[in-house]
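Quick start: what a row looks like.
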Amino acid sequence: MNLSTFNTYCATLPQTEHVIQWGGADVWKVAGKLFAMAREGDDGFQVTFKTSDIAYEVLRQEPGLRPAPYLASRGMKWIQHYAAPGLDDENLRIHIEASYRMAIERLTKKTRLELGL
């Protein structure tokens, strides 16, 4: 996956919004709730996403993955794919979609209904 395919994939998820923030990161949200962000630079492609408690414990041990700088240090269960081997494209999409669904779960019932989620 690269930044272009990341953005293309996130745009397919219903009711998402894309912003550039935090020093040029491509940030994806649903109803204002962050679910994934990425950047591509001198260090290569990096993508960050929210995980379940169990996925966090497993993924943080894998080569090319780490607790997300800043977010994980605040006690949040976010993983950053930062180097090979990391996750293949299909598994990245699975985890990004799971993060998207977790963001939706944090919305009020009213907001979910208004957005058709």
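That is the whole record. The beta strands are 16-21, 25-30, 33-41, 44-50, 65-67, 78-81. The chain has one domain: 3-115.
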